[in-house]
Structure formats: structure tokens, C-alpha cells
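Inverse folding, one chain.
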């Protein structure tokens, strides 16, 4: 529930609302049976026909219902007339009327709320001014109250009336309430946009995409899942979420899903490899860098809009990760998962063994066997930091347990995913490479994909849908004009 919530509050009904309700209740049967072309909009007759089965409201508004020679009929927007059963017409009319009543109720409530806002604005302004001038309420908190007053006036007024402007504890409580409200509104927006994206992804998955296209779509959606979980708790998520993580788990999937962005990334990576001291300022002058920033910003806006500065930093981190990813992982501390998770990362990464692989078997050289032992020792240290006793595990058991943690939804998941990426990049041993390859639906192999200059199959056309084609009838029917 929102911090400010007027959903249970009954605003006084205005004369305009009463007149609209009376007009709706007095409609004739013909008006009830006739569709609304304005709401139907540019939908097709096949959409209207499908609505008879699926009950889609906008589709039903494209249909005029009536009787012809004693039988119920439906007239579609293209003039086609269909015989329908009494049960079908009854269900369609009931569904459409129920939705019309809901819409009317929403319109009436908005009218009444707006009137209530204006009627009480002077009281609200006086209360808020007093909190600012006498209590020292911050302007950022005051702006939250102003914004919320337009949407939930009764709840905001009640809240402000409960604060003593002369009590600093009350002022502090008012600040905290404003912050919770701001985060709440932000989180609801992020959740709403992600739900729409999730539905779109689900719809696309059922359209017979090729395995390659399905894989890219899954990869990109995984990035959106990360962004959703990272951003929906706080409006200030950029300040508490490491841009390097956003680069790895969101920006990288976005790039992988678009061949043109992969080319831009490859060009920038080549430039960085030729000049390791290249700064983000130098990179920002590149058209390829600008295209990546634009793509990441546009993609993020579908879930959680990024500031231009943060998007630029994310892309800069992504480019740097192309060559020095392992080293970046050793020093980057995630703040997203809170103090406990940061403590795990600090403990684990402090126990990072030397980069130089020792000659464990004393044969005068370091080989794959030495690398496997070294990688397993590193992962054991990280599992210990997660609170998992791995001292008696074999190399394969260590790899399996790391995968299990990375695939889970617990506090260790994000850290385990980062450790798997480090292992893959640093050690490149079969034991862990196979475990990583088996981890489907995650973004742990994103960097490997980015490092391969392969031509991906073009993304599928997302326009168009499957629609039923209506059949013409030769019956000469009469319907309401």
C-alpha cells in the first residue's frame, strides 16, 4: 500500500459527476447495444470478431449488437453481420457494460478528487508553508507533499495535520514520510513498466522465433530483470548501485542483443586495447560511444530511467570491462545488497590468492592441473565468505555449489555470479567453464559473447500479430442504425 492512499476515501460528489452518472443510467437499449468507435480506435474488424471470444473491451466497442428476424446478430466495423448465440451476445454486453461502468466510476472519482484538491488547496498550502518556515522542512520533502497532494489530497492533509511543526522529531518524521512516499511512487512505476515488458517478452516468445533469436531475447530480458531488482526499492538507486554491476548485468545484455551495438562495442574495445590510457572523456567523443550511451539509456527507460551522467558511467565501465574485467571485479564493491553483502564481498575478495598459479605438483611447470587446483582454492575461499564450508569439496563439487548459489535467489546470488565470471576470465579451466556453460538464462557469459566478433542474426520484427480473418456472410440482416 502507498504511503499516501486515498483509495478508501469518498470525495464529496460534485454536480458535474451527478449529472454524468444520471446521463449514463438513462441510456436507451439501443445506446447500450451500440459500440463506441472512439474507444475502438484503429483496431481491425478481426480484432472485434476475436473480442466475441476473448472479451477484449476495446474490441467489443467495435461491435453493434441487435436482432434480425428474431435472431441476435453482431455488426462488425467493416459492415459484416454475424449470427451469434443469445449466450454470446449476453456475455459480450455484460462484459462491455461492466467495463464502461468502471471507466465512468474512474472519471467521476477523478472529477470529485480534483474539486476536493481545489477546495482544500488553501489549507494545504498553509500547513506546508508552516512546516517549511517554522519547522525547517526541506524543499525536496515539500515537493513530494505537493506532488502527492494532487493525487491523494485527503491522505496528505491528514498526514500534515498530524505533525507538530514546532517539534523537530515531527519534522524528521515528515522528512522520512516524504522519502518513503517518493520511493514508493518510484517503485510502483518501475514495477508497472517491468510488468508490461514481461508481458511483451512472453508474447514474443510464442511467435516461433529461431533458437538464436530466442537466446538473444532471453539474454536481454535477463538484463531487464537485473535492472528491475536493482532499481525498484529506491528513487536514489543510482547512488546505491555500482555502475560496474549495471554495466555487466544490464548494459552488456543490451549490447549482445543488437548486432549494431556489438559492432560499436568491438570498435571501442579495439581503440581501448591500442591505448590503455584512454580516458572516458576521450571515449565520449566517439560516435560509437554515444550510440552505446543512447541505446543503454533508451533501454533503461523501459524499466528505470537513468540520468545521462549515470548512463555514461555505465557505458564507460562496460568498455573498461572488455579488457580489465577481472581486476575491476576485485575492487568493485556492490552496495545494492546492503552492508551484510558488502561484508561478504570484502571478506571473500581479500582472500583472493595470487594471480601467479603455483606449481602445485612440483614438476617444474604450471599446467592445467595446477590451474584447476588454483581455481578451486579461490572458489573455496569465496564459498567460505558466503558462510559455506567447502573445505572437503572436490573441484567438481566446488564448481557445482558455486553454480547453485549463482542460480538461487538468496543473498549470495549476485556475488556468486561475479565470482563465476572472475573464474572464467582468469583461470579458463574445463571444470568451471562447463559449470558456467550449463548456467542457462544468466548473464555470466556475456563478456565472452562480447569478445567474439560474430554476426548475430537480425532481431525479429516486433510489429504485427496473428489475427483471425472474418468470414463474409450473404445473409441480408437488419441491425440497429
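Residues assigned per position:
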Amino acid at each position: 500500500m502507498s504511503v499516501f492512499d486515498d483509495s478508501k476515501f469518498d470525495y464529496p460528489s460534485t454536480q458535474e459527476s451527478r449529472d454524468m452518472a444520471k446521463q449514463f443510467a438513462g441510456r436507451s437499449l439501443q445506446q447500450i447495444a451500440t459500440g463506441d468507435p472512439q474507444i475502438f480506435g484503429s483496431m481491425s474488424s478481426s480484432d472485434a470478431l476475436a473480442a466475441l471470444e476473448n472479451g477484449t473491451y476495446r474490441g467489443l466497442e467495435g461491435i453493434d449488437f441487435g436482432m434480425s428476424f428474431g435472431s441476435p446478430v453482431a455488426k462488425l466495423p467493416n459492415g459484416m453481420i454475424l449470427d451469434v448465440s443469445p449466450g454470446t451476445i449476453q456475455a459480450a454486453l455484460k462484459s462491455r457494460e461492466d467495463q464502461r461502468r468502471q471507466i465512468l466510476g474512474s472519471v467521476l472519482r477523478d472529477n470529485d478528487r480534483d474539486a476536493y484538491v481545489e477546495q482544500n488547496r488553501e489549507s494545504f498550502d498553509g500547513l506546508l508553508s508552516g512546516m517549511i518556515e517554522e519547522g525547517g522542512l526541506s524543499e525536496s520533502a515539500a515537493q513530494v507533499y505537493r506532488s502527492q497532494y494532487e493525487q491523494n489530497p485527503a491522505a496528505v492533509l491528514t498526514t500534515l495535520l498530524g505533525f507538530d511543526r514546532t517539534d523537530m522529531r515531527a519534522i524528521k518524521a515528515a522528512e522520512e514520510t516524504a522519502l518513503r512516499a517518493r520511493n514508493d511512487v518510484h517503485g510502483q512505476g518501475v514495477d508497472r513498466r517491468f510488468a508490461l515488458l514481461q508481458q511483451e517478452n512472453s508474447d514474443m516468445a510464442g511467435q516461433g522465433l529461431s533458437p538464436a533469436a530466442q537466446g538473444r531475447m532471453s539474454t536481454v530480458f535477463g538484463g531487464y530483470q537485473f535492472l528491475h531488482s536493482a532499481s525498484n526499492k529506491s528513487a536514489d538507486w543510482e547512488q546505491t548501485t555500482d555502475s560496474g554491476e549495471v554495466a555487466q548485468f544490464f548494459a552488456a545484455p543490451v549490447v549482445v542483443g543488437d548486432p549494431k551495438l556489438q559492432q560499436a562495442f568491438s570498435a571501442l574495445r579495439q581503440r581501448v586495447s591500442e591505448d590503455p590510457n584512454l580516458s572516458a572523456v576521450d571515449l565520449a567523443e566517439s560516435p560509437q560511444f554515444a550510440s552505446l550511451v543512447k541505446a543503454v539509456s533508451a533501454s533503461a527507460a523501459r524499466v528505470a530511467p537513468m540520468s545521462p551522467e549515470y548512463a555514461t558511467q555505465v557505458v564507460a565501465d562496460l568498455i573498461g570491462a572488455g579488457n580489465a574485467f577481472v581486476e575491476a571485479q576485485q575492487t568493485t564493491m556492490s552496495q545494492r545488497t546492503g552492508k551484510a553483502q558488502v561484508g561478504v564481498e570484502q571478506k571473500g575478495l581479500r582472500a583472493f590468492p595470487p594471480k601467479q598459479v603455483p606449481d602445485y605438483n612440483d614438476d617444474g611447470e604450471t599446467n592445467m592441473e595446477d590451474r584447476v587446483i588454483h581455481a578451486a582454492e579461490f572458489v573455496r575461499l569465496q564459498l567460505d565468505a558466503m558462510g559455506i564450508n567447502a573445505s572437503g569439496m572436490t573441484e567438481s563439487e566446488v564448481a557445482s555449489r558455486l553454480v547453485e548459489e549463482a542460480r538461487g535467489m538468496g543473498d549470495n546470488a549476485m556475488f556468486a555470479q561475479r565470482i563465476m565470471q572472475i573464474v572464467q576470465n582468469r583461470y579458463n579451466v574445463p571444470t568451471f567453464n562447463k559449470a558456467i556453460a550449463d548456467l542457462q538464462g544468466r548473464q555470466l557469459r556475456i563478456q565472452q559473447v562480447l569478445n567474439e566478433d560474430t554476426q548475430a542474426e537480425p532481431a525479429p520484427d516486433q510489429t504485427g500479430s496473428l489475427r483471425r480473418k472474418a468470414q463474409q456472410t450473404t445473409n441480408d440482416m437488419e441491425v440497429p442504425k
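The radius of gyration is 30 Å. Residues 338-450 form one domain.
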